[in-house]
């Protein structure tokens, strides 16, 4: 149980274009989803927290107009990187916590998306 | 707010031996949760074990167990009978038992398993 999928697993795009990353909880209802960014050989950096049906809460220093987060249902959250630039190249990971069993207080992670902006 | 400290950037263990990864934390909350996550080369974050602060008994999951010392704010992970597949980055993390359950992560410990 508590499986989270993420799509795509990797994406290459041109500078100036937008990229959408999907995060889905497959077998539980995710009341809260989190988006992280991870640089090589570093820990995870929280970008934003989103609750289903509400606006996301962004961490300090994260541009909300650049990283658009939507959590429209209990199983899906999306992260859109708008007007991507090479410095946005990174590994993006989502996680979800929600209802059912031990899922409420525990974050379950997706497999991550590697974004390369040329 | 919590802080989580992992003081061992790298560790190694011989296959079939036992290794302990250290983690200390600081929090002003009375109710909180602590976790160990594993990140293998695939970069998929995998939950290894979790501990509720109100539980005195140390959590155990097969070969993985924790030594939770609440007064010392220590939360170490013991891996018994180490296997090659245990090689990964291990992150200690925690959150207060309320609100959005935002995790605070340590910097990680890279574990190598020697055949």
Question: What would you say about this model in short?
Answer:
With 118 residues, chain A is mainly beta.
Mean pLDDT of chain B: 94
Biggest chain contact: A-B, 23 and 22 residues
Major β-sheet profile of chain B: 6 strands, mixed
Distinct helical segment count of chain B: 0
Give the overall form of chain A. Answer: globular
Describe this protein's structure.
The complex is a heterodimer of chains A (118) and B (115). Helix content of chain A is 0%, strand content 55%. Chain A contains no helices and eleven strands. The mean pLDDT of chain A is 93. Helices cover 0% and strands 52% of the residues of chain B. Chain B has strands at 3-5, 10-14, 19-21, 24-26, 32-39, 46-52, 60-61, 64-69, 74-79, 88-96, 104-105, 109-114. The mean pLDDT of chain B is 94.
Layout of helices and strands:
The complex is a heterodimer of chains A (118) and B (115).
Chain A lengths: L3 E4 L2 E4 L5 E7 L3 E10 L5 E8 L5 E2 L8 E7 L2 E6 L8 E10 L8 E2 L3 E5 L1
Parallel strand pairs in A: 2-11
Antiparallel strand pairs in A: 1-3, 3-8, 4-5, 4-9, 5-6, 7-8, 9-10, 9-11
Chain B lengths: L2 E3 L4 E5 L4 E3 L2 E3 L5 E8 L6 E7 L7 E2 L2 E6 L4 E6 L8 E9 L7 E2 L3 E6 L1
Which descriptors apply to this entry?
heterodimer, A: 118 residues, mainly beta, 4-stranded antiparallel sheet, 0% helix, B: 115 residues, 6-stranded mixed sheet, globular
